[in-house]
């Protein structure tokens, strides 16, 4: 049975950088008070990248995918499956994965979206690995891409300062060498109300609330506890110790969550990849973006063991252990 190995990665952030100070000025014009100090101290976020009006998720996804394909040394026609994780698709349908397939010219690929909010990439990676192990795909493009700025209530300071836009992608390929060595996914729909954008379009009108709403403190506790448990379970499944992990790449929601988690697991902060300071929370894009940053800056080397973790709305959470 072949392994599924990450052979390339790419990341793309829209060029408009909005610092906390910039955001505080923009919000002040609407009569909403925030500050760089509040955002920095509670979240570790210093800035975020935001799209210009009208830029869609597929646009970011295509850019990240092209970089990942080049990095892998593959042509778009080599890809036989595209799995795109997003909560901010371009349309109700077709799937954003199909739009990306057309833009890339990946004419041999099946394509579908995965919806698991901030756990989306971990869900999509696990799905891609399963296709490869089953012999149903050889080269899978796994993407996390979001334009979260479009579902934020910019009058709600408790949420709008936390998120950013972006996309990350990896190419997962059948290999005789170990790649994904463990995967563990979870959901608890009874917790759906602590983080949701509970709206829809029906009969041509918005029904419900189209904006992201969150009980921040409940999410905080849930995230730390669920990711800690998931890390133990995936290590047990793969027969490795937490001490064997070279790099922890958790969902980038909040530096305080990441630090709590690292301490709870006894993983030294020097082994934890952090991008939330520069990217803010890009939901399904956060893990592949962070992975790409740490691969490209030379921290993650071939043979290293990386723990990728997602957590978010649903509630959903999970872990993937990858031998790079
Ligand atoms: C959102 C979060 C940063 C809020 O931090 P907190 O310490 O829980 O803060 P609280 O919600 O208790 O709010 C404290 C005060 O700050 C205020 N506040 C909220 N947002 C603010 C902002 N952007 N600027 C200034 N003040 C703000 C609140 O109104 C409240 O004021 P009050 O005490 O006068 O009522 C924190 O709960 C968190 O990070 N949660 C996890 C969120 C997350 O990661 N979600 C995504 C998971 S995928």
Distance between the termini: 18 Å
Query: What is the level 1 CATH name of the largest domain?
Result: Alpha Beta
The counted number of beta strands is: 15
How would you sum up the major sheet? 5 strands, mixed
Write the H/E string, N to C. EEHHEHEHEHEHEEEEEEHEHHHEE
- Global geometry: globular
Question: Uncertain runs with pLDDT below 50, 5 residues or more?
Answer: none
User: Rg, please?
Assistant: 18 Å
Q: Into which percentage range does the β-strand content fall?
A: 25-35%
Question: Can you put this structure into words, describing what you see?
Answer:
The protein is of the alpha+beta class and 324 residues long. The protein folds into two domains: 3-175, Peroxisomal Thiolase, Chain A, domain 1 (3-Layer(aba) Sandwich); 180-323, Peroxisomal Thiolase, Chain A, domain 1. It has ten helices and 15 strands. It has helices spanning 20-28, 36-43, 57-72, 96-104, 120-133, 157-160, 216-238, 255-265, 276-279, 286-296, and strands at residues 3-12, 17-19, 47-49, 81-85, 110-114, 139-147, 165-175, 180-187, 195-196, 199-202, 205-208, 213-214, 247-250, 305-312, 316-323. Strands 1-7-6-4-5 form a five-stranded mixed beta sheet, sandwiched between helices. It has a four-stranded mixed beta sheet with strand order 8-15-14-13, sandwiched between helices. Strand 4, helix 4 and strand 5 (110-114) form a beta-alpha-beta unit. Helix 3 crosses helix 4 and helix 7 runs parallel beside helix 8. It is globular. The two termini are 18 Å apart. Coenzyme A is lined by residues 34, 38-39, 42-43, 118, 157-158, 161, 214, 216-217, 219-220, 223, 253-254, 257, 281, 311-312.
